[in-house]
Amino acid sequence: MTDTDHRPAADPATGTVAAEDTTAPDTTVSAPVVDLNADLGEGFGRWRLTDDEALLSVVTSANVACGYHGGDPATMRRVCEGAAAHGVAIGAQVSYRDLAGFGRRTMDVPPDELAAEVAYQIGALQVFARAAGSAVRYVKPHGALYNRCVHDDEQARAVVEGVRLAGPGLPVLGLPGSRLHAAAREAGLPVVAEAFADRAYTAAGTLVPRREPGAVVHDPDLVVARALGLARDRRVVSADGTPVEVAARSLCLHGDTPGAAALARRVRAALEAAGVRLGAFA
User: Fold this and answer.
1) What is the pLDDT of residues 207-249, one digit of tens each?
2) pLDDT per position as a tens digit, 87-113
3) How many angstroms separate the CA atoms of 61 and 250, rounded?
4) What is the pLDDT of residues 59-91, one digit of tens each?
5) What segment(s) does the record annotate as region Disordered (predicted)?
6) What percent of the chain stands above pLDDT 90?
7) What span, in angstroms and rounded, lies between the C-alpha atoms of 97 and 69?
8) Three-state secondary structure of the chain
9) Which of 68, 63, 103 is nearest to 79 (CA)?
10) What structural domains does the chain harbor?
11) Contact, 60 vs 36, CB < 8 A?
């Protein structure tokens, strides 16, 4: 069982980190506490991309698409209801307005416009989360916006402004050391670091772009091994073989890859067998 119903104030034990700390490993217990998050609700209309129901039985946090790269009102409502039923924390996965490109095309959006669009997406999801008896508990950018906010101060600040407008105090989930986290700290928002077991890393600790060969790890055994390394040792081996320190509270499991639900179950089982405690950070 997960520990998603225990939601104390932000401190190192929860993984929801104060503005001046991006990693905050759990030092109050003997075993690490790790959140498993996945991108859900990314289909729309009659088309479904992810096995949302299966993944909701595995993860502790759900990054719910808010209609800009995937999702629609009915899908958002359905996923929020499912998350609430499973005790899974609901997060808003905000994106550039790019339904045709699945939010993976870089766009130059004026900061004030981007801030408004981020706030709009969070607000829309909040309606369905509240109707399901829950709430939006954190925000995570998607795709090109996520990658842009790793290094782009202007876009990162715009995303943070959108978060601030929609829900003051909402934690921001993202890559440790990113400009997004720096902007969130400047604004006084909690930040939570995440890592990816199924994505290749550069020696600098950033993600290998999806357009490059080997950017996505498909070998299930390797994904499980990397998840264990990230959870227990706070490190991963980069694409060039360099060990990289990645102190993350949350592990992302992509839901749009073949066999995603089965792989997620394997990862969870391996973590639990290794003594890793699972629980949402928010």
Assistant:
1) 999 889 999 999 999 999 999 999 999 999 999 999 999 999 9
2) 999 999 999 999 989 889 999 999 999
3) 9
4) 999 999 999 999 999 999 999 999 999 999 999
5) 1-25
6) 80
7) 6
8) CCCCCCCCCCCCCCCCECCCCCCCCCCCCCCCEEEEEEEECCCECCECCCCHHHHHCCCCEEEEECCCCCCCHHHHHHHHHHHHHHCCEEEEEECCCCCCCCCCCCCCCCHHHHHHHHHHHHHHHHHHHHHCCCCEEEEEECHHHHHHHHHCHHHHHHHHHHHHHHCCCCCEEECCCCHHHHHHHHCCCCEEEEEECCECECCCCCECCCCCCCCECCCHHHHHHHHHHHHHHCEEECCCCCEEECCCCEEECCCCCCCHHHHHHHHHHHHHHCCCEECCCC
9) 63
10) 33-278 (3.20.20.370)
11) yes
The closest of 246, 247, 279 to 37, measured between CA atoms, is 279
Amino acid at the residue 93: Q
Is the pTM higher than 0.85? Answer: yes
Per the structure block, which two tokens stand in for 144? 């090109």
Tokens (6 digits) for 224: 């499980």
Instruction: Decide: 65 and 71 in contact? Cβ < 8 Å.
Output: yes
Distance CA 251, CA 61 (A): 10
What length is written for the chain?
Answer: 282
| Structure tokens belonging to residue 255 | 């839901």
Mean pLDDT computed over 162-191: 97
Instruction: Report helix, strand or coil for 37.
Output: strand
Count the neighbouring beta carbons within 10 Å of the beta carbon of residue 19.
15
Contact 12, 26 (CB under 8 A): yes
User: Residue 258 is which amino acid?
Assistant: P
Looking at the DSSP bridge assignments, the partners of residue 207 are 201
